[in-house]
Design brief:
The complex is a heterodimer of chains A (494) and B (185). Chain A is mostly helical. Helices cover 73% and strands 1% of the residues of chain A. Classes of the chains: A mainly alpha (494), B mainly alpha (185).
Chain lengths: 494, 185
């Protein structure tokens, strides 16, 4: 109780309160702009948060993260253009509502299910993180190595239909993490004598290049007329009570989203897609899914919004980021010498409890802002793509150059921007590159420690019970996935 | 995963994909072949401490994944040989890679200009130039560009105090003005 009270006191800090409001509003707005989104905004803001207190910086980024999950529903409903991949299902389900003149009902259904999903996920974060951290206290290097490996395997498996490309991207990220001076023997790896590479591939310029600048290049080279905005008709509060007519769908979707958020490498998109299929099978009104079913919007939005807070559970308790945005946030922790993991609850309890409360309050700020300003935010969704590209590219400089005042970093960002553009144009995934880069040092360090303690005996990973269970589960998952893929390809060719 | 981006550019042609896969396979194969030279060390520990281990694992997976993609691409092209129109589309797509390179070139010029004209002037020039270059030029968009610059200077330079190097241009001003310009613009 005292732990939570300490966190509540943090809300009185004006900088934290300001970061909460600014982050939440900014998140909603960028979430509503197709092509902007949380990844682009967080990557640009990342270096500016290094000068802030850890809680202030994290609050700002988390505001963007959570706010964008809400905001992406606005263009999905009002211009039938999903602001991000996770709003595709919302756009599909909301279209018939719009055609029936019930855009406002669809909007309020989306908002209320997002709110319930978001708040339940924060409560799960509050309840589950500490117990998980206590369990993780018993983990050794073998278990942490297996967790890191699980995150990498799951991120590849999660890319259904593009698993080979995802494996290549993950391996490329892993390789990038090894460039520079290796710590054990100070050996230079793949530096080719260049002093600029001795410190390794810097995370911030890589993230900005890959996620923000490449997006800017996509927008700058895009063509096409902007879509029209639909008029909001109907009562806003209809959906707020309506959502509780489907308690099984609402709470089930939130719980499923929380579970997927906790599992490293899964993410919102996969969670939402899987849950949508299940909900359609289980619902008595399953035949209405895809034709404007309220449950379809509830599934999409409740799942989507419950993942971000839940993704913080493994990061805070185990130090394992589950997906791209928490991987970016890990950089903020490390810059401030805040090391996530079981010990964080002993060393910085006020920070962890502060995060809990800011996330909870943020959901109320976001829903209040949405009720007041939905019409205005919808106009932001119509921003010209080329102008958006100009803005993102110009803003990218702040992150790439001003964080270190180093031209090499700019060169690295530009190289990754071009790579990101090419990969996007081939619909090859970017997220596994970032996870590979972030998880690489954790995996290598923990594997070395585990094998060092066992004098190189690989059975260390199967003789410790928790590690053995993880190995077995991963092996089973890989075999099942390869088998399913093989069967699917066979069916396509015959 | 989140990478199924609905705003991604048009899907690439099979030949363009093949060209890219060949480049990636050659690059990753080259890096794997260079592992002996690129990770040479005097490490005397067990096999698990060797510096080549992690890059070796990563590059082996990378080469294998690229070879599988290459094999699939070639098999697909053998089953359904490309028509002349597809060859033309692939050539156009490869030329299309020059567009982002051009914008990155302007971005490099923007950096150069910051060193010589200062953040405020360089940003204004860069934004207005890009607005013109992307075909948006009109009073409305020019004003939007000026607004964007004002926003960025207000937030990043004045608000967050992001430091920028003192440019040559500011040397022509009296010391007091120069100090103000360096601090705020």
């Amino acid at each position: 109780m005292e732990f939570l009270w300490t966190g509540l006191m943090q809300l009185g800090d004006p900088s934290v309160a300001l970061a909460m409001v600014v982050g939440a509003i900014l998140g909603v707005v960028v979430g509503a702009i197709p092509g902007a989104g949380a990844a682009v905004t967080i990557s640009i803001l990342l270096p500016t948060t290094f000068a802030m207190e850890p809680l202030t910086g994290m609050t700002l980024l988390l505001g963007v993260y959570c706010g964008s999950a809400y905001g992406s529903a606005i263009p999905a409903i009002m211009i039938n253009t999903p602001g991000s991949p996770v709003a595709v299902l919302t756009a599909l389900e909301a279209r018939p509502f719009v055609l029936r003149g019930e855009a406002r009902r669809a909007m309020s259904l989306a908002y209320s299910s997002s709110f319930v999903g978001g708040v339940l996920a924060v409560l799960a974060l509050m309840l589950l993180t500490l117990p998980l951290a206590k369990v993780a206290k018993n983990f050794g290097s073998a278990e942490f190595a297996m967790l890191a490996l699980a995150a990498l395997v799951l991120v590849v498996i999660g890319h259904t239909g593009a698993r080979v490309a995802a494996a290549a991207a993950m391996a490329f990220g892993l390789f990038l993490s090894t460039v520079g001076i290796e710590t054990a023997f100070s050996t230079q790896r793949y530096t080719f004598g260049s002093p600029a590479l001795l410190g390794g591939i810097p995370l911030v310029p890589m993230v900005i290049g890959l996620f923000a600048m490449s997006e800017a290049l996509v927008q700058l080279t895009a063509r096409g007329a902007p879509p029209a905005v639909v008029q909001l008709k109907g009562r806003f509060f209809d959906g707020f009570s309506e959502v509780f007519r489907y308690p099984r769908t609402l709470f089930g979707s939130s719980a499923f989203g929380i579970l997927c958020g906790i599992m490293p490498g899964v993410g919102e998109f996969l969670a939402q897609q899987v849950n949508y299929v299940w909900a359609r099978k289980l619902s008595p009104e399953g035949h209405l899914f895809g034709k404007g079913a309220p449950e379809g919007i509830i599934v999409s939005e409740a799942t989507n919004n419950s993942v971000p807070p839940a993704a913080l559970i493994p990061m805070l308790a185990l130090g394992i980021p589950g997906e791209e945005l928490t991987a970016m946030m890990l950089a903020v922790f490390l810059v401030h010498n805040v090391v996530p993991g079981p010990d964080l609850f002993l060393t910085r309890p006020e920070f962890v409890a502060g995060l809990y409360w800011t996330l909870l309050v943020m959901n109320f700020i976001i829903i209040g802002f949405l009720l007041l300003a939905t019409g205005l935010i919808a106009r932001a969704a119509l921003i010209n793509k080329r102008f958006l590209g100009v803005a993102i590219l110009t803003l990218s400089l702040i992150g790439t150059y001003a964080s270190n005042y180093n031209f090499t970093d700019v060169g690295i960002a530009m190289a990754f921007a071009l790579l990101g553009f090419i990969l996007r144009s081939h619909r090859w995934p970017l997220t596994p590159i970032l996870l590979g880069l972030v998880m690489g040092p954790i995996l290598e360090g923990r594997m070395r420690q585990a094998l060092g303690g066992a004098n190189g005996d690989l059975t260390i990973f199967v003789t410790r019970p928790i590690s053995a269970i993880m190995v077995a589960a991963l092996a089973l998952l890989i075999v099942m996935t390869v088998r399913a893929d093989w069967k699917a390809r066979k069916e396509v060719t015959t | 995963m989140d990478d199924a981006d609905p705003h991604a550019p048009q899907p690439a042609s099979r030949l363009e994909s093949l060209a890219l896969t060949v480049i990636f396979t050659a690059a990753s194969g080259g890096l794997l072949a260079a592992i002996e030279v690129a990770t040479r060390s005097n490490a005397r520990g067990g096999w698990w401490t060797q510096p080549w281990l992690m890059p070796g694992i990563a590059l082996t997976i990378l080469v294998a994944a690229n070879l599988i993609t290459l094999w699939r691409d070639v098999a697909d092209l053998r089953r359904n040989p490309p028509l002349p129109a597809e060859w033309a589309a692939a050539r156009a797509a490869l030329l299309g890679w020059a567009r982002p390179v051009e914008y990155l070139g302007w971005f490099a010029a923007y950096l150069w200009l910051i060193h010589h004209a200062g953040y405020g002037v360089a940003t204004l020039g860069f934004v207005l130039f890009l607005i013109w270059r992307t075909g948006l030029w009109s009073v409305r968009w020019a004003l939007a560009g000026v607004g964007l610059c004002a926003f960025m200077i207000a937030v990043f330079r004045m608000g967050l105090g992001v430091w920028m190097p003192a440019p040559d241009l500011y040397d022509i001003f009296p010391q007091a003005v120069r100090t103000v310009l360096i601090r705020w613009f």
